[in-house]
Amino acid sequence: MTMDEVLAAVDAYIERHVDRYIEDVARLCAQPSVSARREGTAECAKLVETVLGEHGASAQLVATEGDPVVVGRLPGRSPRTLLFYNHYDVQPPEPLELWTSPPFAPKVRDGSIYARGAKDDKGELVARLLAIDALREARGGELPCSVLFVVEGEEEVGSPHIARFVQDHKDELACDGAIWEEGGIGADGQAELILGPRGMLAVELSVRTLSRDAHSGGAHILPSATWRLIWALASLKGEDERVRIPGFYDGAQAPGPLDLEMLDRAFEKNPNQEQMLRENYGAQRFVAGRSGKDLERSVFEPTCNVQGLSSGYQGSGVKTIVPAEATAKVDFRLVPDQDPEDILEKLRRHLAQQGFEDVDVRLLGWMRPSRTSVEDPLVQLTQRTAREVYGGEPSVYPLVGGSSPVYAFAGPLGIPVTTAGVGYWNNRAHAPDEHMRLSDFKNAARHIARILHGFKDIEQSPR
Amino acid sequence: MTMDEVLAAVDAYIERHVDRYIEDVARLCAQPSVSARREGTAECAKLVETVLGEHGASAQLVATEGDPVVVGRLPGRSPRTLLFYNHYDVQPPEPLELWTSPPFAPKVRDGSIYARGAKDDKGELVARLLAIDALREARGGELPCSVLFVVEGEEEVGSPHIARFVQDHKDELACDGAIWEEGGIGADGQAELILGPRGMLAVELSVRTLSRDAHSGGAHILPSATWRLIWALASLKGEDERVRIPGFYDGAQAPGPLDLEMLDRAFEKNPNQEQMLRENYGAQRFVAGRSGKDLERSVFEPTCNVQGLSSGYQGSGVKTIVPAEATAKVDFRLVPDQDPEDILEKLRRHLAQQGFEDVDVRLLGWMRPSRTSVEDPLVQLTQRTAREVYGGEPSVYPLVGGSSPVYAFAGPLGIPVTTAGVGYWNNRAHAPDEHMRLSDFKNAARHIARILHGFKDIEQSPR
Question: Which of A34, A365, B43, B69 is surrounded by the most beta carbons within 10 Å?
Fold first, then answer.
């Protein structure tokens, strides 16, 4: 069979059997798996193991300090292995009253399947299985490369155990590239490829100056925790939005010419972004007066954000106290090659040097930034096959603002990581009426089958 | 009768009839009057009117926009009038489980009467009635000067209507001096005289940058309300504790030589103040490194205090948001002759000049500072009679850290205001097991009777 014939057979298989796979999506979605409260996650891990087995994988649960990771393997003809990172946990479904049909009673209507997890991430997982089955069927039962599934159960709570899991199982997880858990198309109907997340360092700053709140008639004597915190925070970032921690920007990569080209192309696809942000968020102005192309380009600016502040009296009216305690939650979004552990140390040193020894810094979590080069053969393959499936030029984001545990795989395993998937701009992941369109499901399977088919032939990643 | 004979008769009357007056205290305390929830305040106003009438005053309720003020008059021989400012409302009694006997079931035990309001302010009010009755009895039914009672019902919620009440009734309230609602003795058993409260300006600063919280992956674009508030607050006061609002210190009186003498004498009476503050509040250091005598002297430093901060996520763990809103409650304690309305205007101007037009300033309340000179004849009389009653030198505070509506009387009526009363250091006003010692009650009545007796003879206040 020629390559065209194989792909025609793949597409025919997908078209013919899509309903059966939507049933698998429904089966998985009917099993609640809310990691925020560990509701049904153990049962869902077993169900994923079963489903992977039904599709020919040798699957097993691997214990972690949290919920188990499901690892599945399918052998292929070439020695090369493509890893699929997915997760079986979901966001809490609340508020329930905003769902048209119950979140854990999957329903197909108007060409979409509605359920918590339909898109994020159970639909994604099954789209990969559909791609694998279609390709194997078209090739007489043989996969062109090996496939390795890593399906974790704690993605929606920040993947606290995945980096350790990869470290502990580095040899068994050896592979040549990975497709991340999600992907899809933009408002223009073309694929969006994401080449890396920013890293994150999250800390809680807290100050206690007194054993209890005091009457504010004594504010000329008794030290306020609130003021100490305000001054400590103000020392971290100025109104110019530049972070003032010495060495904070060391190692932060500026965007290269290729990055700028990609970001500017993404901006040109959506030149009304300012207007959209104004409408969606009621923003009157943007950080540091940014506008136009800088809205995309500035993703290469690391940030220092305060998630929340809490101190003293927050009710109505007046309470004349000097607060004894004050806390702030702060997250730093980091760009390659900033290192969260290094930033934490610099933060502590800065506070000490500024005289804020009384400000306690507690680590809440961190993720490293990660990036795959746009010139990597896997990225090139993903772009080329996206053009075939979606008929136009994909948007490629060299870096996105959020954070994810890509670093836990890319670094230790030395692999390129990119995205392909079932999403579209309005799939309501994390919100009521989450859904996946069947057309997106089929296109994602077609795209992933083509990536798998081409993966055996591409050059080794230069990394 | 000589003056000594009159005072001997006063003291004998007090000793003989004290129980009857404690019954009046109990009657008043048995009527709840919690202004924070307007619980029983109307009933208590009527009861105060009744009780004043029973003691020979012509009393009436005067309406305000809040609870009524009870005004009572007793004519005297001289044309001079002494005003007693008191209040019939009390603090909420909670937490109830910490009371030995129920807060509104007054109980005499171990030489004290226990109830909410026993000291603050129903005991104070009845101590004045006891003084009046004792003096009148000793003088054959005639008071040496006229007495004017102003008993309001909203003191514990910041006296929102008293300034307006005084303005509206300025002519009827004409008088020559006032004794404030509370007073008493310090740990050394000697009287404490307070010559003025600081003023206060309370505002809420709030910022909204977005219509809803955004994902903190967008922190390089979407402006944070939290950061705007932090920077705005940091512009108000530096780590040196100096307020940075231009003109803030204009008109602020530095303590004069007499003030410093009084403050230093108060400090010498209690040289272990640092140690006590460390024990009571767990303070490791004091504002601006103050210590020793400066702990007392610095009451002449106006303050800028943050009562509370609220923004974004305050739960456990991490929530990756850019907060859309942030608020802070700020109080400024003002010294004579700072003017809260002037400070409010300067605050607004400062924020605008610093580029914080997005920070909304909402007025929560204000009180002016107020001071009576230590050289005022009423203060001299109060000091001299305190020596007679308590046997030693009273502590005189030219200014205290808290705020009260003294200004509403002192300024418009042009009168000196000082203190005398039933308190002692451990009377638990505002707390469970509030009580008044019968010995303090009797001494306060003796002291007030002597002030009333001498008031006719002192020079007109120079104000």
Answer: B69
Supply the mean pLDDT for chain B: 95
Which residue, A225, A460, A314, is CA-closest to B327? A314
**Counting Cβ atoms within 10 Å, is residue A427 exposed (0-12), middle (13-18) or buried (19+)?**
buried
A8 residue type, one letter: A
CA torsion A297-A301-A304-A307 (nearest 10°) is 20
Note the pLDDT tens digit of each residue in A419-457: 999 999 999 998 999 999 999 999 999 999 999 999 988
What does the pLDDT look like over A144-164, one tens digit per residue?
999 999 999 999 988 999 999
Structure tokens at A4: 């065209």
d(CA A455, CA A169) in angstroms, rounded, equals 23
Q: At what angle do helices B3-30 and B438-455 cross, to 10 degrees?
A: 130
In this complex, which of A223, A229, A333 lies closest to B286 when CB atoms are compared? A223
pLDDT at B430 over 60: yes
Secondary structure class of A400 (helix, strand, coil): strand
Residues 6+ apart with CB under 8 A from A316: none
Alpha carbon of residue A22 to chain centroid = 24
Give dist(CA B392, CA B389) in Å, integer: 8
Peptide bond between residue B4 and the one before it cis (omega within 30 degrees of 0): no
Percent composition of chain A: helix, strand, coil (DSSP 3-state, to 5): 35, 20, 40
Helices then strands, counting H and E runs in chain B, come out as 12, 18
Q: Long-range contacts: B286-289, Cβ < 8 Å, 24+? A: B286/A221, B286/A222, B286/A223, B287/A219, B287/A220, B287/A221, B287/A222, B287/A223, B287/A224, B287/B241, B288/B240, B288/B241
- Rounded CA Rg of chain A: 24
Q: How many other C-beta atoms are found inside a 10 Å radius of the C-beta of residue B48?
A: 27
Q: Which residues contact A149 (CB under 8 A, 6 or more apart)?
A: A52, A57, A59, A70, A71, A72, A73, A83, A84, A86, A125, A128
Interface of A with B in 378-417 (CB under 8 A): 400-403
The pLDDT, as a whole number, for residue A210 is 96
Indicate the SS3 state at residue B312. Answer: strand
CA of B450 to nearest chain A CA: how many angstroms apart?
31
What are chain A's domains? 3-197+370-455 (3.40.630.10), 199-252+302-367 (3.30.70.360)
Amino acid at A314: Q
- Rounded Cα gap, residues A35 and A43, in angstroms: 12
CB–CB of A308 and B323 under 8 A?
Answer: yes
CA distance B292 to B416: 30
Q: Which chain A residues are within 8 Å of B301, Cβ to Cβ?
A: 220
Adjacent-strand bridge partners of B143: B76
pTM of the predicted structure, to 2 decimals: 0.91
Q: Dig out the tokens for A46 from the structure.
A: 């077993």
Distance CA(B149)–CA(B29), nearest Å, equals 19
Angle, CA B379 vertex, CA B378 and CA B384 arms, to 5°? 100
In whole angstroms, give the CA distance from residue B450 to residue B139. 13
Residue of A nearest to B225 (CA): A306
**Which residue's entry shows tokens 């005499």?**
B108
SS3 B40: coil
How large is the average pLDDT for residues A389-412?
A: 96
Strand B359-367 to B199-208 pairing: antiparallel
Q: Six-digit token pair at A276?
A: 């959209």
Q: CB distance A212–B281 less than 8 Å?
A: yes
The tokens describing B279, both together, are 């024990």
Q: Tell me, yes or no, if A317 comes closer than 8 A to chain B by beta carbon.
A: yes
Confidence of residue A104 (pLDDT cuts 50, 70, 90): very high
